[in-house]
Amino acid sequence: MHPFIAKYLFYCLEFLRRENVFSFLKELEKNQYLSKSEISVLQKEKLNKLLKSVMSENSYYKRKYRGYDPIVDFASLPILTKEELRENYKALVTNKNQKYMDMVETSGSTGIPLQFYRDRVIFGYTLASLYRGHRWWGIDIGSKEAMLWGVPVSYKNRLKVKLKDIVLNRFRERAYNVNVDTLLDFYKKIQRKRPVYLFGYSSMVYEFAIFVEQMGLIGQDLYLKNIICTAEKINSFQKKKIEDIFGCKVISEYGATEAGILSFECPMGCNHISDDCVYVEIVDEKNNPVPDGKEGRVLVTVLHSFSSPIIRYDLGDIACKSTVNCSCGINLSSLEKIIGRTSDVVVTPHGQTYHSIVFYYFIKDFMEKHGGIKQFKVRQVAIDKLEFHFVIDHSSKKKIELYIKKQVLDKFGSDMKVAFIYHDYISRERSGKLRDFETVLDVALYKTNCSLKGN
Ligand SMILES: [Zn+2]
Questions:
Q1: Is this structure's pTM higher than 0.85?
Q2: 223 with 367, same domain?
């Protein structure tokens, strides 16, 4: 479909859905060039408006914040957890605003389904925030898109997604249970349909890049302008490999179904936070703010969530804010690192805890020296045992095993046993995501002193 027709179709669709994406986009594109202090004032105004609204109209929050002045005591307000959202999503809805609400469902990082309500304003701002990021790279609404993404299970939802894909000028390959035939078909489809960009789960796009390389296909023949990776942290070796094979820049998008777009990478490499849509706090174990440049848990407040407020919501992620100003001209603040999920914790036989990001550093160092690992996953199957699952390319098993054993010994001590399991393919979750760490331990029992340092 011609991008102009696609943009017009999208305009009609969002007009019918009353999402106001175009007017929100205009507003957000103006905000990004305000000075840092003006953005901060705007964000505070939006935050205070939301807090005033919940204290006068939302009975759930009125109860939750009893004894607090939410505007003055914001940093000490009780947080909203995933479990709380899961159990109270109906009660969280603001009494007077039940019109134009949609029920949204996500698998959540734990795999336990999470349902909640979202109104059209939130949908509109989320899309506007996404398109603002796209437009930093010259990708406009209506540009043709190839997707490596999930496909719904039920026939009705599959049909809905198919129609949406047509209107939004995109086509998809399911990111679950792929094989040589489906990936080859996807490659040919991209060659034939000439999308402007590819969008997908980081690990799945990486897998596609490796497939293209191994099949002797030419990634640059696809003429992709950009590749947008999301939903999982993208490792630097994955990013480099994808960029080398397809000959275009990989862009990181960080978001959550519950909160919308949190950050989007600009052409200078900064992950700019959508300060005018979300208020992001980085806090320590006691919910106290940590200085910029230091890792902590991500709390998010969705600034336009009047109908079903999301305030100080613990996303279950670890990240840190940047201390440097970006030179791209956009004055939104930025995240320096997005590290991963708080639940991904390794426990040693002596009770010490580390974030599973340590494995990323293990693999990254190995890949920089030797390359050859196509997929990996680590499972802690007992307090003193780690299983390393690999799909490898040309690297010798012996080299990997010696390297991993040494890293584990140095990091976790001699009581931690290691097992290696090799596969042709490591299966993904039904959504298409690939979890690179799993544990059978109840990490909440150990997590009080988790070290976030990878090295
Ligand atoms: Zn920038």
A1: no
A2: no
